Structures are given as C-alpha cells and as structure tokens.
C-alpha cells in the first residue's frame, strides 16, 4: 500500500499574505462588490430561507382547511365542485350573525356604519346575495384594518368596489364608499 502525501496546511502568515494579495488585485470597487456579495448571501441564508419554510407551512395549513381541501382535491370533478359550492356559504337565516361580525369589525377599527343601502337578491335558486353599499369616514389605516378583518372573519364576503375621496390634502380622514356582497345559501 502506498502512502498518499497530504500537503501541509498553509500557515496563518501565508493565508494573510494571500488575502492581502487578493485585496490589492481587486481594488476598492472589487472589495465593495465582494462585501455586497457576502452580505447578500448572509441575508439570503438568514432571512429568505426561514421565510420560504414559513410559506411552505402556510400553504400546507391552507390546503388542510376544510373548504380548500374539499375543492383542491383533484379527484372531484369541476361540476361537482360547483354544485357543492353553495354548501360552503352561511345559511340565509344566519344573516344577522354575519352582519354582527361585519359591525364588530367596524367597531374594532373605530368605524361606524349606520347609513347604507342593503339589498337581498337571488343569484340562482341555491345562492342568494346580500349586497351592502355604505359610506365610511375614516383614516386609511382604519379602513384597511376594517376591510382586512371583515374579509377574514366572513369567508363568503367579497369586496366589490371601493372609492376614496379626500376633501383636502391635509385631511387625515377619507370619505370612502364601500360595496360588498355576502353570499348565502338559499335555505
């Protein structure tokens, strides 16, 4: 058996000399570029990698949700999914409960919804829509918080249209007109 000769590790002084030689050859702009490259790699490892794991976890959680899981299954035909869709909506007799959730979202975000146009309509025999059109006077953050909470708390609620107007550039409050639709089972 022959022995393999392993070259000796360079000394610390030799490594310092090679780093200085590299720095001299790269110059200032090369060193800045190398520094940016190292910082970008560190940012990717420390920030983007955990975020990609979190995104994968959120996708897994979303696929396990009952409504999503039933419609995400590839074994179910689209026509069957369409027939089953109204069963995911709240029943018409639960309308007041869902409106309470909407008003609770407004209260939580310091909004008041008093005046508005509310109309119950039939989209087809199994689905009814409750259309809500109302004005809101609030800051942008309050309005955004209200919409996020209302849509999160009411999965069968859709934001149809929103318009903003500010009387003066310095005004903190917006005049907004909000149009939403709550989808209901016609039972």
Explain this structure.
The protein is α+β, with helices and mostly antiparallel strands and 187 residues long. The chain has a domain at 89-185: 2-Layer Sandwich (Alpha-Beta Plaits), CATH 3.30.70.60. Helix content is 51%, strand content 22%. The protein has a 4-stranded antiparallel β-sheet with strand order 1-2-4-3. Helix 4 (95-108) packs antiparallel against helix 5. The longest helix has 53 residues, at 12-64. It is elongated.
Write the layout of secondary structure elements.
Blueprint lengths: L11 H53 L1 H7 L5 H7 L10 H14 L8 E8 L2 E12 L1 H14 L3 E9 L8 E12 L2
Antiparallel strand pairs: 1-2, 2-4, 3-4
Helix pairs in contact: 4-5
Organism: Ferriphaselus amnicola
Keywords: Membrane, Transmembrane, Transmembrane helix
Protein name: Transmembrane protein
How would you name the CATH homologous superfamily of the domain at 89-185? Ribosomal protein S6/Translation elongation factor EF1B
End-to-end distance: 87 Å
The fold-level CATH name of the domain at 89-185 is: Alpha-Beta Plaits
- CATH A-level architecture of the domain at 89-185: 2-Layer Sandwich
Biggest β-sheet description: 4 strands, antiparallel
Radius of gyration: 30 Å
Total strands: the figure is: 4
What's the shape? elongated
CATH class of the domain at 89-185 reads Alpha Beta
Topology pattern, helix = H, strand = E = HHHHEEHEE
Uncertain stretches: none
Strand content: 15-25%
Averaging pLDDT over every residue, what do you get?
83
Q: Treating each run of at least 4 consecutive H or I residues as one helix, how many helices?
A: 5
Helical amount among residues, as a percent range? 40-55%
Query: How would you write the strand order of the largest sheet?
Result: 1-2-4-3
Structural class, from secondary structure content? alpha+beta
Protein name: Transmembrane protein
Organism: Ferriphaselus amnicola
Transmembrane segments: 22-45
InterPro entries: Transl_elong_EF1B/ribsomal_bS6
